[in-house]
Amino acid sequence: MSEAKPKLKQADGIKPRGALKPRQQAPRDQRPRHEDLREKKPPTAEAAPEVDGQPGPPPEAVEPDPQLTPEEAEQARRKYLLRRFWISGRGYWARRGDGLAWPLTIGLLILICVNVGFQYGINVWNRSFFDAIEQRNAHTVYVLSAIFLPLVAGSAGLVVAQVYLRMTIQRRWRSWLTTAVIARWLANGRYYQLNLVAGDHSNPEARLTEDLRIATESPVDFISGVLNAFLSASTFIVVLWTIGGALTLPIGGENLTIPGFLVITAVIYAAITSTSMVVIGRHFVRLSEQKNQAEAEFRYTLTRVRENGESIALLGGEEEERSGIDRNFGHVLRQWALLTGQHMRTALVSQGSSLFAPVVPVLLCAPKFLEGSMSLGQVMQAASAFAIVQGAFGWLVDNYPRLADWNASARRIASLMMSLDGLERAEQSDALGRIQHGETEDGAMLSLDDLSVTLDDGTSVVKETEVAIEPGERVLVAGESGSGKSTLVRAVAGLWPWGGGSVNFHADRRLFMLPQRPYIPSGTLRRAVAYPAAADKWTIKQIKA
Description:
There is one protein chain. This protein has three domains: 7-18 and 441-513, Rossmann fold (3-Layer(aba) Sandwich); 92-428, Up-down Bundle (ABC transporter transmembrane region fold); 514-545, no CATH class. The protein contains 15 helices and eleven strands. The protein has a five-stranded mixed β-sheet, covered by helices on one side. A two-stranded antiparallel sheet has the order 1-10. By secondary structure, it is α+β, with helices and mostly antiparallel strands. Residues 9-55 have low confidence and may be disordered.
């Protein structure tokens, strides 16, 4: 960067100024309308775990071990990203989180446990019903048919209640975390500063919408699914062990007895399918993450065309923009094709498993049924229990694609959080210094006292600027390209925190900044006139004046 410093040209010399004092916050309804944007909000509970009931500082910066290879460093970074997501996400269940978080969670867990009990009841009903069929006992068949309806109604009602509680937790968790992250993103101009610092935080709008939705919905589904799978497997393994007993096979003139053969078969079968899924889908997470990134870049390209439509039309840049759009969309399609291959391979394992699962237990029970040591009801109960155990053990097979999507989305959200952590640490650190903003009651409307501006890495841009702007004076900021003119304006506006010295405004005046690119908020004309204050802060009479 050029060492040339921007020069502020003004009439007369710098005049003495009165003593400075910290800026006093006026009541919100009396504050100039631009001041709402300059408020410094306290850190939210999302930033870090609580300390004595108060939001803690951002997590410490984690530097990779220099002895690691690039591949190992990347793997360590990915693991930390998931940990960083949970540092913030678990705050929903903390003391300062949602007061209904734990009641909803406990209620969901209880319903899952009760529903497994209903499944066991239906499994026992299967045995009794088919035994009655085998015995041609009409009375028992009719009685069991009447009992079946309450069992189904109770199980269905529990499932509906589970859906309600699960989706309520997901909705409230997403609302809590979205509010917290957006509060940090908008605080102190960080949404703007992210454009000026390095890091993996591109397309924050996609991360705060789709990625955050997936990152908060999937864990609730996973935890409830894992608990249901564990309870189901534990319950029906006992059923399989009790019903199946031991299987005796004649081998080489001797009898080989296999105790709990149905349980052993279910475990081996699930291990084969789960291992196959892990091996075949080992690239799923990486490809899913790359596809999500490509989709976000494609949306960003289209958004830029919409936002800069007038400039593009005046310059006649439609063909070049179309070329860029086609290039980004082609990248999306290529990533989609790679992910399609992964889906095809995992679908092969999943579909094959679902076709074999109902047949295997019947084939295993057939010898004992044919020799008369097992009834038809026991065969059907064993088949039902085997299917439930297989479904529980095969949970990973069925949910591996969703797990990969969650992994990718959680890392993208965590990357944005880490960038916000860095900005927050820079705001709180004394290493780079901070530009102070205050008020003065002397004649100067704006004064820069020993103002220096640095980049976030400590590189000096503007050094030791001393300026006083009196009422009625007009000042032109001049300098070579790259000398720091725009950075100086950002520092005066409070958008650039790094540096030293102070920027002081007259206590009875307010600063109005006109951006290079005018911005009009969406909504009513009244909102546009009152912006950045809320529309109801200004009366119709004040607006017309």
